[in-house]
Amino acid sequence: MRHRLAYIFPLFVAPLLLAAAGLFVLVFDLLPTPLARFMDVSVWLFALIGGLLAFSYARTRNFFAVLMVLVTYLALMQLVHQPVINRTPAAIPPELSYLLISFLLPLLLTINSLWTERFHLLQDLFLRLAFLGLPALILVAVAHRFPAELADFFARIYFPAIHVEKLRMAQIPALAFLLSALILMIQLIRNPQPYFASQWVALVSMMLMLPYFHAGHAPALITSLAVLMLSLAVLHEAFHMAFRDDLTGLPGRRALNERLQRLGRNYAIAMSDVDHFKKFNDTYGHDIGDQVLKMVAAQLNKVSGGGKAYRYGGEEFTLVFPGKTAEEARPYLEKLREAIEAYQVRIRDTASRPADNKTGKQKRHGSQADSVSVTISMGVAERTSELNSPEEVIKAADKALYKAKEAGRNRIALFK
Ligand SMILES: Nc1nc2c(ncn2[C@@H]2O[C@H](COP(=O)(O)OP(=O)(O)OP(=O)(O)O)[C@@H](O)[C@H]2O)c(=O)[nH]1
Fold first, then answer.
1. 212 to each of 58, 157, 216, 376, how far by Cα in Å?
2. What is the H or E stretch that residue 295 is in?
3. What's the order of all strands across the beta sheet hosting 316-322?
4. What is the CA(372)–ligand 1 centre distance, in A?
5. Ligand 1 center to residue 314 CA distance, Å?
6. pLDDT tens figures, 235-266
7. In 10 A of CB 325, how many CB atoms?
8. Is residue 16 within a helix (H) or strand (E), and if so which, with residue range?
9. CA–CA distance from 344 to each of 191, 282, 291, 292, 307 (Å)?
């Protein structure tokens, strides 16, 4: 859980900074006039950029999140702001439109984010449009036919004891926002992706903005920022895909190559490899092999002493220690080796457990029931006058790793 939080926290940085900047500007009324005039355009501009980015990376989920935030803003302006402020006539009473908007936004965003991209791009777009448009159309039709009843249903305070007046929102929409925020947070914890973090912040920002639909440039500014967060999430995800290893979440080979180009004059590099992993895979199956690789990666990711872990490929990992010699890096590596040796991975994949109950019981017997462990070997080398490029240091670390394997595995060898 702790290593998961370490992945999740950075995902919030950009969206929270944007939200905080928006709030700061609004509270202290700092929006310069030329920029304020740009606000109405910026909603469209950011939505266009976000939509195009999402579309070109085939992220239909992001595309619809951007679209829904944009439609929410337009509906708020046309169906609530205009009739209330400019007293233009409206087919549905603006109070009811407001209630419907504040209910539909969290509902549709949640359906959209629970729905993973599974189909062909156009098929997915069409299905989403139909499934997300349908509840909205039904509610609009009911609103035309029974406006008073629907308004009463949405605006009624069902539980006065837990009503939060400060939210300035009826209980059903508030509950929809709360549930949506909860579901998104669970999705984020289970699957740390920039999309969920950005959508969470965008959702909360939109929720806080809705009651201020009449307040100058506030709706346009907050909507622009929400769309910008969702657009940045697409870029962040593209970056993740290119630089992060999908299985372990560690930076991958490409990120390592980038890092190697920026190392200074002194550094140590360790190559580490899971011991007898082929046999492990053959015994427990590839899925449990994957679970073990994730555990190894999570442990290596905790490296201290200024080191950084990368997945080199397969069951091989690289640790880079800028400014350290191999001897200086050794104690930090030793700590990792010990932690991995001691770690018991619980086997969650029931399919790969022994099928018959008797064998299963035998396997589960004893204190180590349903868990497995592995060891790793490491080879370390440092930059010297003979090894003066990162590639040469990696080759030397690989040679040392081979020595560690030959010497019995579950140990660290220094290149000499
Ligand atoms: N489950 C799983 N296995 C992988 C993955 N990548 C590589 N492997 C397996 O890792 C194993 C590596 O085997 P070897 O390099 O021969 O290592 P070994 O001989 O078992 O062990 P040592 O001699 O101790 O290095 C192969 O069986 C690969 O299929 C992965 O992403 N997931």
1. 34, 21, 9, 57
2. helix 286-300
3. 308-313, 316-322, 267-274, 376-382, 412-414
4. 16
5. 6
6. 988 888 788 898 998 999 999 998 998 888 89
7. 17
8. helix 2-27
9. 23, 19, 11, 9, 24
For the chain, how are helix, strand and coil distributed in percent, rounded to 5? 65, 10, 25
267 DSSP β-pair partners: 322
State the residue for tokens 């589960």. 364
Residue nearest to ligand 1 atom 16, measured at CA: 278
- Determine the Cα–Cα distance for residues 72 and 65; give it in Å rounded to an integer: 11
Q: What is the atom index within ligand 1 of the atom nearest the CA of 279?
A: 20
Q: Which residues line ligand 1 (CB under 6 A)?
A: 247, 273, 275-279, 281, 286, 289-290, 293, 314-315, 405, 409
Closest among 251, 350, 261 to 300, alpha carbons compared: 251
* Assembly ipTM: 0.94
Residue with tokens 């159309």: 137
Name the residue of 250, 315, 401 to mutate for ligand 1: max ligand atoms within 8 A of Cβ: 315
For the four alpha carbons of 390, 396, 397 and 402, in that order, the dihedral sign comes to: positive
The amino acid at 161: A
- What's the pLDDT tens digit per position in 287-328? 999 999 999 999 999 999 999 999 999 999 999 999 999 999
Name the DSSP class of 160: G
Cα 180 from Cα 185, distance rounded (Å): 9
- Residue 70: CB partners within 8 Å, gap ≥ 6? 43, 44, 47, 223, 227
* Ligand 1 centroid to residue 277 C-alpha, Å: 5
Six token digits for residue 186: 């669970």
The rounded distance, in Å, linking the Cα atoms of 230 and 49 is: 10
Give nearest CA residue, ligand 1 atom 31.
314
